[in-house]
Amino acid sequence: MWNKIERGRQGEALARDYLEANGHLILFQNYRKAIGELDIISFWNDCLHCSEVKFWRESSGFHPLECFHETKRKKMRKVYFYFLKEFPAFFHLTPSFNLIHITEKKEVHFYSSIF
């Protein structure tokens, strides 16, 4: 059993490897602002992908997509706008907010454009 920090690092490494294997160029990991964080920001297919990585136990009783309530979506959007202010060269790209779900078996499930 991994502790929380190890799970986070392992999950983000698996997510990064998955994205790179599928043609994404990783721009940033753990882009943090006071309001929140974007786990991975990548470029692929003329889109700026902002991905949330979740290590999720299947025995928890619900799906990680259920975590994307309105408050979480607002925080991710705000961090994205801070990113655009800091790096205006990316402003012209279409954003895609994604979930990367890592299972206990280290399987990677990618959900694109979830909101």
TrEMBL record:
Domain of life: Bacteria
Any Pfam family: UPF0102
Recorded family membership: Belongs to the UPF0102 family.
Organism: Leptospira brenneri
Protein known as: YraN family protein
UniProt-listed NCBIfam families: PRK12497.4-2
GO molecular function, one term: nucleic acid binding
InterPro entries reported in the protein's UniProt record: Restrct_endonuc-II-like (IPR011335), tRNA_endonuc-like_dom_sf (IPR011856), UPF0102_YraN-like (IPR003509)
